[in-house]
Amino acid sequence: MNSELPDEKEVRCLCPPVIHLQPFGKFSQREAQLLGKELTKRIEDIFGVELECEVHPPLPLSDTLMNDGHTRYRADKIIKSMAANANRHNIYIGLTHKDISCSVHGKKDWGVQGLSLIPGNACVASTFRVKDRRDSWKVVCHEFIHTYFTYNHCPKDDPFCLMQAAKGHPRYKGKNGLCPHCSSVLKI
User: Fold this and answer.
1) Taking a C-beta distance cutoff of 8 angstroms, is the pair 146, 121 a contact?
2) What whole-number distance in Å separates Cα of residue 164 and Cα of residue 152?
3) Residue 122, SS3 per DSSP
4) Confidence (pLDDT) at 14
5) In the predicted structure, residue 1 carries a pLDDT above the cut 80
């Protein structure tokens, strides 16, 4: 054991991750580029760190990614399709306009805005349930924080915190950063 090696938290501080935005279906590369600019600006505002963001060409949404009823795309399947390229320093975020779902709250096929598998290095966000597309960065940032920090929802349930759980009712008004508690815990 080498005591000179930094622990994982120190490595994160030395090497911030590269965010890879992977659009799916009709989510255009141009839309992903605009979202990436907004996302990295907001992350810099929140964490004081400039992150590199790469935008990949859109991939088709295969029927194999759909739920059993072929009514929604399974968020967990989308994440697994990106996981091979993801690691601690390359966080993949899938983007789609389609309805996505996962098994949660005792439901086999619950519609969600985004999903992160914790621990993991990839996540997915959908604009399907976002009424104002200008709020899309908030969903993506929320999922990025879950993924990169392996952080759950805001334990204070602060209505102005980006990490507040939606509980089936997405609220974006006033959410532009982290609450004091989450801010003190999360550092890149």
Assistant:
1) no
2) 9
3) strand
4) 53
5) no
Which tokens hold the place of 180?
Answer: 């004091």
Residues 92 and 122 sit within 8 Å (Cβ to Cβ): yes
- Are 84 and 45 contacting, i.e. CB atoms less than 8 angstroms apart? no
- Please tell me the pTM assigned to this model: 0.90
The per-residue pLDDT for range 132-165, each reduced to its tens digit, is 999 999 999 999 999 999 999 999 999 999 999 9
CA–CA gap between residue 47 and residue 183 (Å, rounded): 8
Residue 42 sits at φ, ψ, to 5 deg, of: -70, -40
Strand-pairing partners, residue 90, are 18, 87
CATH label, 17-185, candidates 3.90.79.10, 3.40.630.30, 1.10.1740.10, 3.40.390.10: 3.40.390.10
User: 155 preceded by cis ω (within 30°)?
Assistant: no
CA–CA gap between residue 12 and residue 21 (Å, rounded): 20
CA dist., res. 105 & res. 120, Å (int):
21
> Where would I find the H helices in 48-135?
75-82
Average confidence (pLDDT) over 163-175: 87
CA distance 103 to 77: 12
